[in-house]
Amino acid sequence: MKGILIFILAMVPLLVPAQQVLTLEECLTLAETNYPLARQKVLLEQQFQSEVNVLELQKLPKLDLNAQSTYQSDVTRIPIELPNADIQPPNKDQYRATLDVNQLIYNGGSIAANARLKQAELKTRQQEVEVTIYQVKERVNGTYFKVLLLQEQEKLLDSKMKILQERAKEAVSAIRNGMALPSSNQLLQAELLLLEQQKVHLKYERKKALESLSSLTFKDIALSDTLLKPEILLASNTPLNRPELKLFEYKAQQLDISKELIDKEKSPSVMGFAQAGYGNPGLNMLDNSFQEFYMVGLKFNWRLFDWGKNQEKKLGVEALKQVVATEKETFVLNNEIQLQEAWEDISKYREILEQDAAIVNLREEVIASNTSQFQNGTITSSAYIIDLNKLYDAKINQKLTEIQLVMSQAKYKLIKGDF
Fold it and tell me: Which keywords does this chain's UniProt record carry (predicted)?
């Protein structure tokens, strides 16, 4: 029996879920790695490879098998009669089957330019995915600090409840010795019930926020898990590193390659061809019999004048480049404004935090004095609770300011692109 008991006690830790300790960096990495849109980068790479393979196939010879049977209302005839010659006109029913081979020899590098354009399009689309994922990081950041604040509020409530439970024990002893009225303990018990109610509210609010964080990070996060308050170091002299900047750069590169491709449209092209066939008539139209035949040659094409079509295309692409440039300029300007606002918030919360510390110190001195007076029966439970509430309101404000300060620092790094 004793052995079974020892076995059960040994298994208990294995049955209780292990508590996790998570950091902001871990949550951001999980969101970046596991977000469904991240898989698009691989899919886009696969699409790019398929499109480039199709372009490369244009360099291979094209084989076409053709066959036709026709009947025509009239045929070519020689309008004169020649002595000692009987020239029969072609049959009105004619038959032909051919194998045609066409081989691209030169097209001004159009295939290579198209491949470069596909590569530029791939970079642009993959960077668009990066921009979207970075926006998800902003949601993770906000949700993380919401959970962190609720977590700290719960800790403060637990601390406050512990103090009130100690005062309640002292009140029961005082009532028993006739040094206090029963209402003294009743007030303390009512305050404890109010704290329990607040804990229930905070628990469910934290549960909702954790469910959102779990959905964003694709990781199960339980109420028993702990989120660490991050230590954030700011470097104000580092350059802007937002993924949007690369997106603007890739868009501009894509448009430059588009202009190169437009220029390639004016290049001459050379094509080799061959045809082998069997038909009636063959190449000799005056021989009314089935014949084998073949033909080989070169085709040259060069569009000398396009009425300014290519030039208009290039002007359109240049206009799009200017649009991208203005979008980048606007983004950088708005980003600088956001950075300045975030920096002002950091300065504000640092200053408020100093005042919060002073307020909490003063409130702690007051409650220390009130605790002694309560134990000696010189103040009522009501007066003690009022000052205790003021102390914990000050502590909650202090904790809120601490988290708002760290959240502003994290926001500054996100705006700058350092996460």
Answer: Cell outer membrane, Membrane, Transmembrane, Transmembrane beta strand, Transport
